[in-house]
Prior knowledge:
By secondary structure, the chain is α+β, with helices and mostly antiparallel strands. 59% of the residues lie in helices and 14% in strands.
Amino acid sequence: xxxxxxxxxxxxxxxxxxxxxxxxxxxxxxxxxxxxxxxxxxxxxxxxxxxxxxxxxxxxxxxxxxxxxxxxxxxxxxxxxxxxxxxxxxxxxxxxxxxxxxxxxxxxxxxxxxxxxxxxxxxxxxxxx
Length: 129
């Protein structure tokens, strides 16, 4: 099996959606028992205390989209969940049936807002944290 160069790997990652890339990172972390988070970011709030925590709240870059309830149009909500994630029909249905559940985790503000709008458009109750 030929090894991919760094450039070839990056080209492959450019083709992935944000959700697919997030799933890859989780799988990578589990496989190699590592964390992709920068250790400096975790040490900064602990060292600076409350001021850093308040600053971090203002500059939040990762958001979780939580499905609170499917509403009357459950099938439409399942379709939106499938469109937003790479879940199959059964997994998406299980997620919707098990609400409240996270649909997206660690998403950008823009992606979280789009997901919230799409799910609410389908009749779901959604919160972004």
